[in-house]
Amino acid sequence: MSSQTAKPAKKFSPAIWGAWISLLSNLALTVMKLGVGMLFGSQVLVADGVHNAGDVIASGATLSSMRISNRPADEDHPYGHGKAEVLGAALVAIILALASVYMAVHSIQMLFQEPAAPHILPLVAAFVSLFWKLILYFYTIRIGREAGSKGLIATANDHLADVYASAAAVLGIMLSLIGEQISSPYLAYGDPIAGIIVSLLVMRLAYTMGRESLDVLMEHSVDLDILKDYAALIRTIPEVKRIDRLRGRNHGHYIIVDIRVSIPGYLTIQEGHDIGRAIKKVITKAHPDVGEVLVHLNPWYETDVT
What we know:
The chain is mainly alpha-helical. It has eight helices and three strands, in the order αααααααββαβ.
């Protein structure tokens, strides 16, 4: 009787788990907000539910882009698939921008409508969303930063935008309930005013995320201070006589560094190869977020001007 060795199941990374939790949470919150909002006529909760429906799409896009970005380099993509996460982050930024416009228009329309009678259950639903999203934000931002995942960091910022939106819903519904108790109909309009303020905050967040994603897609250089640190590390290699060029660009969840250095021209090919490996090692050891170091060696002689 023959037996076959079972292959171990491939485990999800913490970043992928975070993306899955975000997706399922957004789906559950969307159903809860839309259901409670429509059942009790809470316009602000319905608006927040529509916002969450957009988050479901954004979370799905982030999850897909993260899975693609983790694929190894291949013949068609020799530098890997890291920018897939950046595309996912850009999509999240677009969805946030559209959601902020929807929230603003909806809130302005509510200023000219008769407010619905408030109920305690929409307030409970808004509170649940607020605390749930707050926990999700701290969870995903921690994992995203640890993994250097642009997509998960974008999802965390999306959760933060939802915290603002849920806080506005809580405030608006509370004002409506208080207004009903003290017979002050004007307090009911605190709901749309809060919605307008939150929509501006969400738009600002979308702009920041979109600009960062565009910088990566346009291969914006890493910060000058980081380049200076790379240069200092390269100069610790005794054979390096001159740094001719040093560039670094963000490629999603990792950085690609491009280096040209001059070393003594009398060294052998093997010695030059070892120097190149030493440069790569010293940089990647000090900066784990560097995924690729491209080293070009130029000959140097004592007669050269340094």
